[in-house]
Structures are given as structure tokens and as C-alpha cells.
Amino acid sequence: MTKNTRLKEARLKSGLTQTELAHEIDAKQPYIAKLEKNEDYSLAQAIKLAEVLKVDAQWLINGDINNSEVINNNPSINKNKKGVPYYDIDFVGGFDLVFNNNEVNPSFYIDFLPFNDADYWVNVSGKSMGPLIAHGDLVALKEVNDWKRFLLEGEIYAVITDNGFRTIKMIGAGKDDDHYTLIPYNKGGDYSPQSIPKDVITHVFRVKGAIKKFF
Questions:
Q1: What is residue 151's DSSP assignment?
Q2: How far is CA 40 from CA 65, 114, 153, 160, 209, in A?
Q3: Cα(2)–Cα(95) distance, rounded to whole angstroms?
Q4: pLDDT for position 96
Q5: pLDDT of residue 64
Q6: Regions of the chain short of the pLDDT cut 70
Q7: Paired strand residues for 160
Q8: Disulfide-capable partner of 158 in 175, 179, 180, 205 (CB 3.0 to 4.6 Å)?
Q9: Is 175 helix (H, G, I), strand (E, B) or coil?
Q10: Cα 51 from chain centroid?
Q11: Strand 194-197's sheet: what is its strand order?
Q12: What is the pLDDT of residue 70?
């Protein structure tokens, strides 16, 4: 089952028409029709859809890992530079070792077609983005070079600041044009949105996707 058919299945089970679902996420019916047919959608879009359909956003993206069809399409690892390099480090705890040191070699490469346009695979720790991105998951990161000009609000990014702070959060509008808001997915009381000045940010990476560790 593809992510498109999972979306259609969830919508039908919810009893919503394409028009009704579109209305709930401030979109138009043709947009939902495209998503259910063959259009790709991001983690942030999956969050919006999942909240309306009362399903898990990670299921919309990756499906049930116990499903044989999904297992047959699992990512694979290799040493032949096929796919995206995987570094056995944590984004929060050691990504600078990779990003600032060209001599650090990847452990291997992860070949997973949906995210093969990423720049890095790394580990994730922490629970602020759970359960969408859980502690111990792997994330595919793609550097955003023009982030100072524009970032999509509601999308998930990995952010590095000039004092070495690193975090993965959804980006929201700031209190003014000089700030962003970092928004956790986990709605628990230990996590809350945080304002961050744009001028302390040094690098931004789009989180292309996340998968459970499979090796």
C-alpha cells in the first residue's frame, strides 16, 4: 500500500469526502485528489491530514512496518555509495563532526528512493518531535542554502545556531520578521514553542523524512 492509498483509505474510513477533507485543512478538493492519486506529501502535510483523519502521521508516511508490502520496500544499506551517506552520529550531539569535517566518512549508504535526494542520514535523540519522529529514529536531511530568504512555515527543519545549539522542530511565524518560532510535535507539558532570532541561525536542513532504525 502506498502513502497515497493509505490517505484515501483513512479518508474513506473517516466518512469525509475529498471536499470535506480539503476544507478541514484549508485546501481545495483537487489538491486532495492529487494526494490520493500520485502526489507526494511531506511530514508537515501528513501532520495536518492525520490530525483531521484521527490517524498516526507516521503511518501515513511510512505505513505499518509489520506489513509485508512495506517490508519488501524497506530501505537498504550498502558500501557502494548508492543512495545517501549515513553517519552514525546524533544530530543534536555530534552533527558538527560531519558537517565541519570533510575527512569523516559515512558508516555506509542508505538506499531509499523517497529520500535519495537528501544530503545526510543521521540519528535522532529526544522526544520533542515524538511520536512523529521518535527517539532513535533516522532522519534524512537536505541543506537549505537560501533559508534566509524563505522557509515554509509548518514544515520540519533541523536548525544549527552560532553557539552550537542543534534542534529539529517545525518552523512557525515569529513574533516579528526577525524571529522564527520552533514548534515541537509532542504536545506534552515538557515541550512548548520557542522563539528564536533569525540572526543566530547558521545552517538549516529540511527534514525530508524519518524512518525507524532497521539495522
A1: -
A2: 20, 9, 18, 27, 12
A3: 32
A4: 76
A5: 53
A6: 63-74, 101-102
A7: 166, 203
A8: 205
A9: coil
A10: 16
A11: 76-78, 108-111, 84-90, 120-123, 138-143, 201-211, 156-161, 166-173, 179-183, 194-197
A12: 31
User: Which pLDDT does position 114 carry in this prediction?
Assistant: 77
Task: Select from 25, 22, 186, 156 the least CA-distant residue to 91.
Answer: 156
| Residues shown for the chain | 215
Quick one: pLDDT at residue 107?
A: 94
Residue 28 has φ and ψ, to the nearest 5°, of: -115, 155
Q: Is there a contact between 204 and 159 (Cβ–Cβ < 8 Å)? A: yes
What's the pLDDT at 74?
65
**Which residues touch 161 (CB under 8 Å, ≥6 apart)?**
196, 200, 201, 202
For each of the domains in the chain, give its residue range(s) and CATH number, in order of start. 3-72 (1.10.260.40), 76-211 (2.10.109.10)
Measure the CA–CA gap between 124 and 89, rounded to whole angstroms. 8
- pLDDT tens across 187-199, in order? 887 899 999 999 9
CB 178 within 8 A of CB 197: yes
Contact 188, 138 (CB under 8 A): no
Q: Which residue has the cell 522564527?
A: 180
Concatenated DSSP letters of 124-145: ---STTTTTS-TT-EEEEEE-T
Beta strands in the chain (DSSP E): 76-78, 84-90, 108-111, 120-123, 138-143, 156-161, 166-173, 179-183, 194-197, 201-211
- Say if residues 106 and 86 touch (Cβ distance below 8 Å): yes
